[in-house]
Specification:
This protein has five helices and five strands, in the order βαβαβαβαβα. The protein is α/β, with parallel strands linked by helices and 129 residues long. The protein has a single domain, classed as Rossmann fold (3-Layer(aba) Sandwich). Helix 2 packs parallel to helix 3.
Length: 129
């Protein structure tokens, strides 16, 4: 069974490039365009008995930003999923807010595919039950 990752980013280009990288590494990918879309998709996944192994999210998005999204995920049955942030935000106070909200890791765009895959494997392995 393929491990599924939910990719949340408002940029179709970023979603496409991240998804391409993940699919080539053997992951099943679900995409969402913002935090609200991602929450809706998580609920749909729950109804279908699906469980992603990780959420990869941006911070700056319309409708619902990444910090709010992370906080809301941590209030659901998906609260134990590792959340990796992939963003242009590199300010220490924003990173601190993200980690306080529940982000397990933080990568700065532009990303190197090897670095992204390493971080994902590390988070999936360290949070596996």
């Amino acid at each position: 069974m393929e491990k599924q990752i939910l990719v949340v980013d408002d940029s179709p280009t970023i979603r496409s490039s991240v998804s391409f990288c993940l699919r080539n590494a053997g992951y099943k990918v679900q995409e969402a365009k913002d935090g609200q879309d991602a929450l809706d998709q998580l609920e749909e996944m729950k109804k279908n008995g699906e469980m992603p192994v990780l959420i990869l999210t941006d911070i700056n998005m319309p409708v619902m930003d990444g910090l709010t999204f992370i906080s809301k995920v941590k209030e659901t049955s998906f609260k134990y999923l590792p959340i990796l942030v992939l963003t242009t935000e590199s300010e220490k106070d924003v990173i601190a807010k993200g980690k306080k909200a529940g982000a397990a890791g933080w990568l700065i765009k532009p990303f190197h595919p090897e670095q992204l895959l390493w971080a994902i494997k590390k988070l999936i392995f360290t949070t596996a039950r």
